[in-house]
Design brief:
Layout lengths: L2 H31 L3 H4 L1 H20 L5 H21 L3 H29 L5 H30 L1 H22 L11 H7 L4 H21 L2 H8 L7 H23 L3 H17 L1 H4 L3 H17 L1 H11 L4 H28 L6 H30 L22
Helix pairs in contact: 1-3, 1-5, 1-6, 1-7, 3-5, 3-16, 4-5, 4-7, 5-6, 5-16, 6-7, 6-11, 6-15, 9-12, 9-15, 9-16, 9-17, 11-14, 12-14, 12-15, 12-17, 15-16, 16-17
Main location: membrane
Keywords: Cell membrane, Membrane, Transmembrane, Transmembrane helix
Subcellular location: Cell membrane
Length: 407
């Protein structure tokens, strides 16, 4: 494994920690700032809004810069946003700081995915992306619980200052481990980058991300009441069970990366099918404590098997603008977060039962399969009209291989 991938993983670990730790710190923040918990919940939305806006915007405006410099600059913005969060005097400043913290999130993963694929041999591109994303999944196992405990004992401000320190470590890692490159935008500049996103296959790939990960968040957003009300777990055990989800996500991420190097589209179809089945079985699996723990783990595995394939699929379809498309995929992931939680909430509010958000998620996973199938049909039709493609679609068509970062 190139050490440069470790630098990307460190950055991903910091980003994953700051994204999810706010959920555990909401009561602390609300008490300290004398606001209600629902009002404090806007801090989660502010971060997500920053991701959605910042992902395509920052990827586009930095397209002509060295990707190494872009990654370091994005992480510097991350450090600033988290430091300002820790020093925020009131909820309004904290809201703005959380929005600022979210801006570099999507662009970092988008540009980082392009760098990761350029660091790897053609047959290991998906694995290289999964190793970068491993920082995000490990954050759910270690980073978020530790940061939450730190906030509970030292104050929530200490947590964000600690996350800033992780960002500083990531900057140092990126500076010393990512080789300098001189990769610039295509000749068309920003207009050419945006033009590359007008392709139907690109939007079908992004739609698959929204539906597929919307399925995950439809269930995961309400997994705590499922575990306590349906499976009978005590509230104190939920943190451990959520760590099991992180373990499953890490396994799924690594397995998905390895499988996608052999069959990108086959891994995507298999992951979405597995996700639909796991979610459909949630009402049954939540009937006992042991099976509920298994369900949470399998949910992480099935959902994150699709992560690397979706990232590479989007990059492949927007070959003239891989950084912008990859960043847009991160924005789609956060739209899935919001949309999935909303749909799961509708099922819960309709009185269909505490496990109904998982069943709604199964429907979204089937929708994702349908969108992925439509993308496959479009590809086959275009291939038959234009240029024949290999019978096996693998992740070897990521653009600018000639400009690969030297590792």
């Amino acid at each position: 494994m190139p050490l440069a991938l470790l630098a990307l993983a460190v950055g991903a670990f910091g980003i994953g920690t700051t994204e999810f730790v706010m959920m555990g710190l909401l009561p602390n923040v609300a008490d300290d700032l004398h606001i209600s918990i629902p009002t404090a919940g806007y801090l989660v939305s502010a971060y997500a809004l920053g991701v959605v806006i910042g992902a395509p915007l920052l990827a586009a405006v930095t397209a002509r810069m060295s990707r190494r410099k872009v990654l370091i600059g994005l992480m510097a913005l991350f450090v600033l946003g988290n430091a300002l969060s820790g020093l925020a005097p009131d909820q309004h400043w904290l809201l703005a700081a959380r929005f600022l913290s979210g801006l570099p999130h999507g662009a970092f993963f988008g540009v980082g995915a392009v760098v990761a694929t350029n660091l790897a041999a053609p047959e290991r591109k998906a694995r290289s992306v999964s190793l970068m994303f491993m920082g995000l999944t490990v954050a759910n196992i270690a980073g978020v619980p530790v940061a939450t405990l730190m906030g509970q004992h030292l104050g929530w401000r200490a947590t964000f200052l600690g996350v800033s320190a992780i960002g500083v470590a990531a900057i140092a890692s990126l500076f010393f481990l990512i080789p300098a490159d001189h990769t610039h935008a295509p000749a068309g500049g920003l207009r050419g980058e945006l033009a590359a996103l007008r392709s139907l296959p690109v939007w079908l790939a992004l739609g698959t991300t929204v539906a597929g990960f919307g399925a995950l968040f439809s269930a995961y957003s309400y997994v705590t009441p499922m575990l306590t009300d349906a499976a009978g777990y005590a509230d104190a055990n939920v943190t451990f069970l959520l760590a099991l989800f992180g373990v499953g996500a890490t396994i799924g991420n690594l397995v998905g990366g390895r499988l996608a190097d052999h069959s990108l589209r086959g891994t995507l179809f298999g992951g979405l099918t597995s996700l639909a089945l796991v979610l459909a079985l949630f009402p049954l699996l939540m009937g006992a404590e042991w099976s509920a723990a298994l369900a949470v783990t399998l949910l992480g595995v099935a959902a994150f098997i699709t992560g690397s394939p979706l990232q590479l699929m989007v990059m492949e379809k927007a070959s003239a603008a891989p950084s912008l498309a990859s960043s847009a995929n991160q924005a789609a992931f956060n739209l899935a977060n919001a949309g999935g939680a909303w749909i799961g909430g509708l099922a819960l509010a309709a009185g269909f039962g505490v496990t109904s958000p998982a069943v709604a998620g199964a429907g979204l996973a089937v929708l994702g399969l349908g969108v992925a199938g439509a993308a496959w049909a479009v590809d086959r039709r275009r291939a038959s009209v234009h240029v024949p493609v290999p019978g096996r679609l693998v992740a070897v068509h990521v653009p600018e291989r000639a400009e690969s970062v030297r590792g």
